[in-house]
Amino acid sequence: MGLPEPPALGASALPAGTYAGRTVFVTGGGTGLGRAIALEFARLGANLVVASRKEEHLAAARETLAETGAKVRTVSCDIREPEQITAAFDAAVESFGPPDVLINNAAANFPVPAEEMSPNAWRTVVDITLNGTYFCAREFARRHLAAGTPGSIVNIGASYAWTGGPGFAHSAAAKAGVKNMVETLAVEWGPYGIQVNGLVPGLFPHEDMTADIKGNLAGTHDKDPCQPAMRVGRLRELGWAATFLASPYARFVSGHTLVVDGANWQRRGLVNPPVVTVRQQMGKGPFVLP
Ligand SMILES: CCCCCCCCC/C=C/C(=O)SCCNC(=O)CCNC(=O)[C@H](O)C(C)(C)COP(=O)(O)OP(=O)(O)OC[C@H]1O[C@@H](n2cnc3c(N)ncnc32)[C@H](O)[C@@H]1OP(=O)(O)O
Ligand SMILES: NC(=O)C1=CN([C@@H]2O[C@H](COP(=O)(O)OP(=O)(O)OC[C@H]3O[C@@H](n4cnc5c(N)ncnc54)[C@H](OP(=O)(O)O)[C@@H]3O)[C@@H](O)[C@H]2O)C=CC1
What we know:
The chain has helices spanning about 30-45, 55-65, 80-95, 120-145, 160-165, 170-190, 210-220, 235-245, 280, and strands spanning about 25, 45-50, 70-75, 100-105, 150-155, 195-200, 255-260. With about 290 residues, it is of the alpha/beta class. It has one domain (about 25-280): Rossmann fold (3-Layer(aba) Sandwich), CATH 3.40.50. It has a 7-stranded parallel β-sheet, with helices on both faces. Helix 2 links the parallel strand 2 and strand 3 (about 70-75). Helix 3 (about 80-95) packs across helix 4 (about 120-145) and helix 4 (about 120-145) packs parallel to helix 6 (about 170-190). The radius of gyration is 19 Å and the shape is globular. The chain binds ligand 8Z2 and NADPH dihydro-nicotinamide-adenine-dinucleotide phosphate. Ligand 8Z2 binds near residues 109, 118, 210 and 212. It holds the Pfam family adh_short_C2. Its EC number is 1.3.1.38. This is Peroxisomal trans-2-enoyl-CoA reductase. It catalyses: (2E)-tetradecenoyl-CoA + NADPH + H(+) = tetradecanoyl-CoA + NADP(+); (2E)-decenoyl-CoA + NADPH + H(+) = decanoyl-CoA + NADP(+); (2E)-octenoyl-CoA + NADPH + H(+) = octanoyl-CoA + NADP(+); (2E)-dodecenoyl-CoA + NADPH + H(+) = dodecanoyl-CoA + NADP(+).
């Protein structure tokens, strides 16, 4: 049987208008989980700012969010570049005033055996996932500290921050940094009224997943029976968790990372399924030095 299905898309645990007059800045909000998160904030009355690199993703955000009647500003931004983040926040202020909430969702990832990863591949994933997350948090907090206003940050993580992630050494290490940063920044900025939390999705397959990740996922057997919940996550479940964490109803929750994965990451035993190396999983032969 597994865990029951959630309420239908369009339902909400929070009162209508919880985010009326508030502005939410979502990085990578044009695809997958970021777009699903932006949608739930929009349904609760928020103005949305969506920042990412590709115009087609920004267009997708505008199209999805338009259905809610929310006001939306999209801005092209590579979160590896602090000056581009400053410009994106300036654009947000120009449209709506300072963002009240930052959802640090943008990240980079591809499966690769650790021994094959190039230095630039490692740097790229860490630069986007860890450094970019910090640069966005820094920009958001500096503006609030200077203005004396409260705010809320939610960093999207991954459960291999705790467990390690074979085939994803770069992303797992970066996400461990993201989780640790939540704990540091919540203490540093709490006195100024800034909440900082983490939100970790379990397996949430979606159409926008990159070809690399889809390929790896396709190579695994049935997804649902491999989860204690007997099902994968529904995108709206992550959106609901994000809107709660950043809401007035969770003001005393800070420095916490909430895992939304139907207990999958706790599924450990002394006897686990047979080990399949990352090379085998990816259909690669023995490693040979180039
Ligand atoms: C089991 C179930 C699982 C299920 C898996 C479940 C997911 C677990 C949780 C985590 C999920 C996520 O984070 S999901 C988020 C995934 N989404 C994304 O990654 C979207 C954004 N990604 C991108 O833009 C690109 O993929 C990325 C490469 C990261 C950045 O693009 P750039 O144009 O900046 O970089 P590039 O110049 O193309 O590449 C930089 C370097 O990386 C190398 N590189 C790029 N792709 C590579 C690849 N596939 N394998 C090796 N190396 C690669 C290049 O060769 C370069 O190194 P050199 O050749 O040496 O110069
Ligand atoms: N889907 C899942 O099952 C899981 C996802 N996660 C996490 O959830 C979050 C969303 O993942 P998901 O929706 O699946 O992935 P997607 O690949 O759909 O989204 C990644 C987003 O990040 C943006 N992005 C990537 N690089 C940059 C950059 N340098 N600057 C600005 N934006 C960038 C992309 O937009 P653009 O290309 O336009 O820049 C894209 O919208 C990530 O943090 C991921 O690690 C964690 C565990 C599992």
